[in-house]
Amino acid sequence: MITYTRPQHRDEFEIAVVCALPLESDAVSLIFDEFWGDEGGHGLGRSAGDQNSYTNGRIGDHNVVLVHLPNMGKVSTAAAAAGLRSSYTRLKLAVLTGICGGVPRLEGGKEIFLGDVIISQAVVQYDLGRQYPEKFIRKDTTSDNLGRPNQDIRSLLASVQGEFGLNHLQQQMLRTLDQIQNKTAGHHVVYTRPPPTEDVLLEPAYLHRHHDQYNCGCDDNAACNKAMDSSCLDLRCAENSVLRRAHSGDSQSRDPRIFFGQVASGDTVMKSGERRDSIAREHNVIAFEMEGAGVWDQVPCLVVKGVCDYADSHKNKVWQPYAAAVAAATTKALLGLYPRTDNLTQRSAAEDGRPPPVTNNFNSNGTGSQYNNTGNGPQYNNTGGGNQFNGTNMTFGNFTR
């Protein structure tokens, strides 16, 4: 059984998980194998000027810091990412984990359902541009666009996009999701999959509004505030506007699937089916979220988000806990495939001028006891501080007995 040593310094962390909503960080906290410090995973502090709140712990073989964002949106996320970089200077990967709105129908006929998970290959800042009287034009020059992931992240993505890698990732995700659900059985928040009747896709142009005679201000192009806060059941959204889909009948037993593609990021909550489809076609995106653009230029980043709605006016919160759990489970599965840097603790300590931890070494130089092989013939053994056990002779310092 492997024993993991509690990190003594923030430089021993290479991975961050960033969450914008409490329901997202709650789900992520369930994939930690242990927390460092007190029960809340606090205790390693932060740099001067950093205003972030952190939880420190271990996920698999990795020390991981969980970042709790104070607000949604790019501005809040960018400020938090800057603070994160100042406190955790050795970060190699930040995973933005949580929920998103999915584009239900993709080019080539593929369909995304609620509960599926999106992994970013790139992030498109779709609301950065110029608003003219007749239209909005996104800034699309090289200097305005967010760059592609670095080679480290591209290598990780390449390892899970083939059939073998994707199947392995999927199975690990399902195993972790099952553990999350078992761990929280009987809790207030339920991470089980909602019934198929809660996964409904309507025509993009069909608005979520009062359709009967109602003195509220709803018309063919707008909905009143009361309608916006009502469910499709309350408003009796027309069944003849529901789009029939390939897996509609058995979605209860359907395992969540993993999709790779470009993710649209902006400061607007997307609640328009027509606008969703227009942006998806123009920029080839498969999901909408609000934080990716704020992290992308600050820290090497992946977006891993579960689909909780279709980014239209009928969106609700029914699928949010399950989608957050699927994203958290996928994050743990990905981190299980991400290589850990060798001797990170010793390297960090040496560069900071701190003494490395004392360990017992087999046939190596260093502090601690040196245990060397014995056998017939001359013994050629390493030297170092500590007692030297050398063949049939025992050497203490410069004296041999």
TrEMBL record:
Residues 15-317 form the Nucleoside phosphorylase domain. Residues 346-401 are annotated as: Disordered. Residues 389-401 have a biased composition (Low complexity). Residues 359-380 have a biased composition (Polar residues). GO terms for molecular function: catalytic activity. InterPro entries: NLR-like (IPR053137), Nucleoside_phosphorylase_d (IPR000845), Nucleoside_phosphorylase_sf (IPR035994). One of its GO terms (biological process) is nucleoside metabolic process. This is Nb-arc and tpr domain protein. It comes from Colletotrichum chrysophilum.
